[in-house]
Specification:
This protein is an all-alpha fold. It has seven helices and no strands.
Length: about 200
């Protein structure tokens, strides 16, 4: 039995060596240069400045494809498009106009009324945060902006402004590192929603 195994092993040994040594060259597609090959397609024939990818040249960056998921067209871009009740939209518009004219008390009263009608409206919480930025109340402004993000259901059109407000709130409180982190999130969302 051992003689049979030994004879079989000895007869298969040359085949094993042949399989290890002999590898078929990869097929070369015209115009495609594989890593480790030069323009002629021969292995090891790498020439400085030669193409490294189809249509590319050495040292020239090849743009990566955009892998961002498409934004849902159903995401509201404003409170007007959010499905909020008409009185809430009206109160937020009134608050914004009052804030523009420096009437922070009137803006606050309008937003408090809007919150009594729709306490889970992310856009109202964001407007309240903007009011508290103007009145230099950084801690309250950050809390309200975070509440807006929490209620906003991952809407980047809403969150981009909320992160800007968080950056401003942290800046007001002297938290430079936190403000920079929030600004980075704002910029990331801005790139996502920009065409």
């Amino acid at each position: 039995m051992t003689r049979l195994v030994t004879a079989l092993a000895v007869s298969l040994l040359p085949l094993l060596f042949a399989a290890c040594v002999s590898t078929a060259p990869a097929p070369v597609t015209p115009g495609v240069v594989l890593p480790g090959q030069g323009p002629g397609g021969a292995p090891g024939d790498v020439r400085p400045g030669g193409p490294i990818m189809p249509g590319g040249t050495a040292g020239e960056p090849v743009p990566l494809p955009d892998t961002r998921p498409p934004l849902s067209p159903n995401l509201p871009k404003s409170i007007e498009a959010s499905g909020a009740a008409a009185p809430v939209i009206s109160l937020v518009k009134t608050a914004r106009a009052a804030l523009k004219n420096g009437r922070t008390d009137q803006a606050g009263a309008s937003l408090e009324r809007a919150l009594r009608i729709e306490p889970r409206n992310a856009w109202v919480w964001q407007a309240l945060s903007a009011l508290h930025i103007v009145t230099q109340q950084g801690e309250q402004a950050e809390s309200e902006a975070k509440k807006s993000i929490s209620l906003g259901k991952r809407n980047p059109y809403l969150d981009v402004e909320s992160w800007r407000l968080i950056a401003e709130a942290r800046k007001l409180r002297g938290d430079r590192a936190g403000a920079e982190d929030a600004r980075a999130k704002h910029e990331e969302l801005q790139r996502l929603i920009d065409p």
